[in-house]
Amino acid sequence: MAFGEPAEIGIVVYPEAQRAAIHGLTDLFHVANLMSEEQGGRAPARIRVSHWQLSADGSSVEKAFDSHPGLPERGLIALILPPSLTNLPVGERMAAFPAWIRAQHADGTTICSICGGAYLMAESGLLEGRLATTHWTHSEQISGKFPGIKVDVSKLIIDDGDIITAGAMMAWIDLGLKLVARFMSPSIQLATARFMLVDPAGREQTFYSTFAPKLHHGDEAVLKIQHWLQAHHTEKITLEMMAERAGLGERTFLRRFQKATGINPTEYCQQLRIAKARELLEISSIKVEQIAWQIGYEDPGAFRKIFRKLLGLSPGEYRRRFFVGEDEAALA
Questions:
Q1: Which partner from 25, 78, 133, 164 sits 20 to 30 angstroms from 8, CA to CA?
Q2: Nearest CA to 18 among 170, 128, 126?
Q3: Is the model's pLDDT at 20 over the cut of 70?
């Protein structure tokens, strides 16, 4: 790339890709360019944005939009695979995209995905043996289809150098700001975030994900206990109690419960309790200590520790961020 020329970031416009993310990222990089010009300098950093789509017969990939037409082609520094709204970007519909994405990566382009865009990156083979994130509802499906991927949906963004994956659908904002910081500067990133009224850092996907227990596993004895726990998880419950109610030995129950739900009974109860705590923190002014007692924790300190472990925020921080009740005194 010649001195003073903009660095080019491409966005893949695959069939049924989310247009809001495609155009939102295009606008975000435009704002970053404006912020760079305001900060001045002999040659302000700039980003060139291009959109890439399949040819009419799907046999090749072609440029459909260029924010700086007429400039020499110097190659992409980054390529973004946006989220999808309905059908996931897999299979024959993607035609030439997987091979083209592999070729871009081989040429030194950083490949980035957002939400369901991770499936297209996985189709290209670039996530094999790599750590990646996507929307938490895709965790099991993408792991089953591509078992070589190390999926961690607790993270909003995982930056693995030449591969960057972002979580939920609106994580395009976080990814865009990350690329601004990397290819322009942290000061331009901050100025862009302020201009767009978004939080430039400090978010994690765990702040927003909700516990969705597996119920369609086919183990009637475990399902019976799950239904019972839904009504009794605030009580003092032991492994012995659950196994007896399921009509199984403790070791057999523990093994079957973990196989059916993916977690052990203690973790399952913690998830149910924390889900209730989140609800109370969002809508009520009840003190944190009282919430801990209501959901089954005798020690508020233990509750705070588990809450932070699961969500990455303390109960007080969570309430300040997500409170939607009417009593503003709860935020004090």
A1: 133
A2: 170
A3: yes
